[in-house]
User: What shape does this take?
Amino acid sequence: MKKRGVTDGAQADIFFESELRADFYDPFLMRDMEKACIRIFEAIENKEKIIIYADYDCDGIPGAVILTDLFKLLKVPVEI
Assistant: This one.
């Protein structure tokens, strides 16, 4: 960290925060993302059953876990 000019905790926080955000893309650049979000919010409001489908590859399984954890945090029941 010293080689990069980071000498204290506050600078380290800024360094890691900015690096992390630089690597993220705006998810709303994906086609129909807004429609998907609206539909999920409607399902939650109407207490509809939400089922998460995923394939069994290197991004499908973690994606299903992340969505399941999110809905659990929001106290929204889901099935996998």
